[in-house]
Design goal:
With 89 residues, the protein is an all-alpha fold. The protein has one domain. Helices cover 84% and strands 0% of the residues. The two termini are 21 Å apart.
Length: 89
């Protein structure tokens, strides 16, 4: 499989995950859980708040990474379509 075809396949898989209700529910539930736990920390639980903050940030990074893979796949598909139509050199 060519590099562009691999990017399209990866992009499709990432897009499927992003559209998957169970996958999104898991991300949303974890995010809500971490934020709720953060709000329940006491003033002296600095390290716990930091860990929870990092957990939320990592969830956002993972989501962004999947979005980037999906976008790359769409761009690769657009390039192949354009090349077939003679719009891309």
């Amino acid at each position: 499989m060519a590099n562009s075809e691999e990017e399209i396949a990866r992009g499709n898989k990432a897009g499927e995950l992003l559209r998957n209700d169970v996958f999104q529910e898991a991300f949303d539930a974890l995010r809500e859980h971490y934020i709720e736990q953060w709000t329940l920390t006491s003033v002296d639980e600095f390290e716990k708040r930091e860990r929870l903050h990092v957990s939320v940030a990592v969830l956002e990074e993972i989501q962004s990474h999947f979005e980037s893979i999906a976008l790359t796949g769409r761009m690769a598909a657009d390039q192949i379509s354009a090349a077939k139509e003679g719009r891309y050199h």
